[in-house]
């Protein structure tokens, strides 16, 4: 991730009016999310088989697109401007019609986007075989620099955090945890032009990725939302910067999430997730409510494995989806001491590996733990958010 700050003036034109209405999927992958997701599968390398002429490459691209999309990247990745890519220009026309946008503007904008050679590389799954390690993952996010920045952020935004807690029922420490893990409180919001990142991921997603077709479709949806909302807000799409996945602002919202869940929380009639901490705070809280956050419910409980062993196969089968009552977990050999035993809703047994040698950590995740994983689909991410928030709260004397 880049350490450069983006230019906040780029955002001044983003209007709150650019909001709601049904968009696309949530946000499976922003900053750390994108990495975590990408690392789950084996790495394969892409080898270009042939180097046909430009004309042939373009024809091949069109044919490959018709056949199913992702194969395009293999033959033409980065070598042909998007204005000369038939599938890109066809998509521009489709977007213009679907959202009543000027077709020339959409075409020109996509044509001006630049291929970012590092982006497909960043999306390529890492080598498999390295065991996941909660201790290592946690140490990246729950560390003194981030905790200190978190206390400053909390102090500077105490009123907005308290208001979000009251209005949405999402504890300040969860919001503080999210914004800290995502961007160290706005210090690392990404320095890629979002337009370039989304065009690259839409038209040159690495074909070797095991879910290339689905990811291509996802990023094309995000590109569509991005063009739509920047046009409506009168913002130059090339003025916005973000992660290599196209996530923006302090909470790293993807365009569809911005459209659906971002709110104006400082009352200036504009949504600015880059420059307004209050807008970022309200938007994160609103995102959680939309994804099932239950006010007052803990995120997780400690567990004790019964000495005679537990039916881990059954308990781990639903992964992080809460499906067992506390009694059902106990019947399968996993006890919840204290408050956990009386938890009224469904729970998930969550396993966090600690490398090949270490003992895994088990916890019982509630529906609120699951809600945090809707921000980024990883239990390691969710527990880091929770524990960073706890550490910041402790440093604040709360
Ligand atoms: Ca605002």
From TrEMBL:
For this protein, the record's SUPFAM superfamilies field holds: Lysozyme-like (SSF53955)
Q: Which Gene3D superfamilies match?
A: 1.10.530.10, Bacterial muramidase
Q: Where is this region: Disordered?
A: 32-56
Determine if Transcription regulation is one of this entry's keywords. Answer: no
Q: Where is the signal peptide?
A: 1-25
Q: Which domain of life is it from?
A: Bacteria
Molecular function terms from GO: peptidoglycan lytic transglycosylase activity
Example of a GO biological process term = peptidoglycan catabolic process
* UniProt keywords, alphabetically: Signal
Q: Where is the active site?
A: 182
**Compositionally biased intervals (Low complexity):** 32-52
Residue ranges of the Transglycosylase SLT domain?
88-390
The family database entries (InterPro entries) matched by this protein are listed as:
Lysozyme-like_dom_sf (IPR023346), Lytic_transglycosylase_MltB (IPR011757), MltB-like (IPR043426), SLT_2 (IPR031304)
This chain's protein is named Lytic murein transglycosylase B
- Organism of provenance: Delftia lacustris
Q: Which gene encodes it?
A: mltB
